């Protein structure tokens, strides 16, 4: 059976370094056989590639790409905590979209994250999801994504 690490290499995806928290929290925590990530911003080398409201300063297409980056950052947090090869399946994601008051395309934005998980994990990447429009996000980010995965085992940390 191929590992998720091998799958990432096959499709040309490299996980970024874990994004440093912007406040008092940890990037991910394990409870039983699940890992829950904190909300992940689309940080690239500690910087947001775009800021502002979706539907105003940021297009829906740009925001979907940023949601994909959030998802990669979430996977990096999982990998750092337990190793990505321990992932059995994606359980749930929550996507927050900093939205202009008239913007109603939050589901399409969060598809940027959802589609990444099915690209990597196939059927094991299919998940429950919420796509929520909000007034503002930390650092004026356009999007933020949380991730919950189920693990194959209950090993707490990679040593």
Short précis:
It contains 3 helices and 5 strands. The protein is of the alpha+beta class.
Molecular structure report:
The chain has 159 residues and is of the alpha+beta class. It contains three helices and five strands, in the order αββαβαββ. It has helices at residues 4-10, 60-82, 106-121; strands at residues 28-31, 34-37, 87-98, 128-134, 143-151. The protein has a five-stranded mixed sheet, with helices on one face. Helix 2 (60-82) packs across helix 3 (106-121).
How are the SSEs ordered, and which strands pair?
Layout: H1 4-10, E1 28-31, E2 34-37, H2 60-82, E3 87-98, H3 106-121, E4 128-134, E5 143-151
Parallel strand pairs: 3-4
Antiparallel strand pairs: 1-2, 2-5, 3-5
Sheet with the most strands, sense and barrel status: 5 strands, mixed
Based on CA atoms alone, the radius of gyration comes out at: 15 Å
Mean pLDDT: 94
Question: What percent of residues are in strands?
Answer: 15-25%
Note the gap between the termini: 23 Å
DSSP strand tally: 5
- Overall geometry: globular
Q: Provide the structure class.
A: alpha+beta
Annotation field: number of helices: 3
Percent helix range: 25-40%
Low-confidence stretches are: none
Provide the spatial order of strands within the biggest beta sheet. Answer: 1-2-5-3-4
Query: What oligomeric state best describes the polypeptide chains here?
Result: single chain
Helix-strand sequence: HEEHEHEE
């Amino acid at each position: 059976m191929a590992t998720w690490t091998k799958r990432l290499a096959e499709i040309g995806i490299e996980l970024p370094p874990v994004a440093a928290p912007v406040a008092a929290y940890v990037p991910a925590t394990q409870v039983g056989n699940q890992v829950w990530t904190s909300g992940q911003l689309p940080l690239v080398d500690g910087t947001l590639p775009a800021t502002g409201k979706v539907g105003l300063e940021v297009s829906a297409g740009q925001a979907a790409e940023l949601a994909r980056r959030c998802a990669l950052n979430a996977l990096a947090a999982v990998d750092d905590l337990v190793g990505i090869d321990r992932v059995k399946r994606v359980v749930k994601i929550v996507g927050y979209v900093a939205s202009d008051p008239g913007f109603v395309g939050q589901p399409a934005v969060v598809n940027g994250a959802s589609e990444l998980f099915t690209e990597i994990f196939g059927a094991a990447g299919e998940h429950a999801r919420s796509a929520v429009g909000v007034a503002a996000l930390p650092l004026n980010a356009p999007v933020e994504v949380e991730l919950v995965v189920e693990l194959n085992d209950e090993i707490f940390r990679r040593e």
